[in-house]
Amino acid sequence: PGKKRGYPGHEGIEMALIKLYKATGERRYANLAKFFIDERGQQPNYYDLEAIERGEEPAPYWAALYYDREAKATGRGEDLQPFWEAPNLGIGAYTWAPVKTIPYEVPYEYNQAHKPVREQDRVVGHAVRATYLYSAMADVAAEFGDEQLRTACDRLWNNLTSKQMYITGGIGPSKANEGFTLDYDLPNETAYCETCAAVGLVFWAHRMLQLECDGRYADVMERALYNGLLSGVSLDGEKFNYVNPL
User: Fold this and answer.
1) CA distance 238 to 236
2) Taking the chain, what is the end-to-end CA distance rounded to the nearest angstrom?
3) Is 82 within the bounds of a domain?
4) Which InterPro entries match (predicted)?
5) Are residues 81 and 163 in the same domain?
6) Final residue of a domain: which of 105, 137, 172?
7) Contact between 211 and 144 (Cβ < 8 Å)
8) Is the CB of residue 113 less than 8 Å from the CB of residue 40?
9) Could you give phi then psi for residue 186, rounded to 5 degrees?
């Protein structure tokens, strides 16, 4: 109470805070992890409020942010701007179009902030952000005995493993958003299946296994480790790659 709202744009600190709590015994670290989990997806969106405080309209602010990143990476000119393809379908991928031809919608799903985490039922957005969030949700559910959060973890796990995971354990088929698209959208040649996402899936599967001693979690952990994580590291351990197409 009385403190500033908010949560990280890229999940990860939540897991670290739980580890810090276990290392120090200081409950404030676990409480802060839970606070970040509870805040994500609440409306009005935290980052929208930040933009407004700076005198920016949220949608143009986000559009300019992604445009600036892509313009620097691609050298595309001032006559182009990004837009998000079918955000209502959860695709969350951006492409290029002439300025002002297509309205921009803020991609809340990209960092899993489209709805409170306890209400989420599909894995969405950036795959690494997602798996780090879901790992932290499992941590917090275990630490606080939060059955509602545990149930959300189960729903998300079932969606991932039944509709959005490759046979190799790879996740996140889209290069555009480095993440998820639609249920059963699992192309072979263009599969992205980022190595970092496999790491995140191992984290999440391990935590789900700690919540419940069920072999299905260990199976996914092993599959992701041997097919999606080791494949991203060279035999000499000196080189790494992001993409793991089938």
Assistant:
1) 5
2) 49
3) yes
4) 6-hairpin_glycosidase_sf, Beta-AFase-like, Beta-AFase-like_GH127_cat
5) no
6) 105
7) no
8) yes
9) -135, 70
Amino acid symbol at 138 = A
Give how far Cα 22 sits from Cα of 29, 116, 139, 245, Å. Answer: 9, 26, 11, 38
Is 9 among the domain residues?
A: no
Query: Residue 62 belongs to what domain range?
Result: 46-105
Block means of pLDDT (10 residues each) for the chain, length 246 residues? 83 98 98 97 88 78 59 49 39 39 64 96 97 98 98 98 97 94 95 96 98 97 94 91 88
Same-domain status, 158 and 196: yes
Q: Model-level pTM?
A: 0.84
Q: Are residues 98 and 207 in the same domain?
A: no
| pLDDT number for residue 92 | 39
Confirm if 166 and 194 have CB atoms less than 8 A apart. Answer: no
Does residue 238 lie within any of the structural domains?
no
Give residue 60's pLDDT. 67
- Residues with Cβ < 8 Å from 127, sequence gap 6 or more? 171, 172, 178, 179, 180, 194, 196, 197, 200
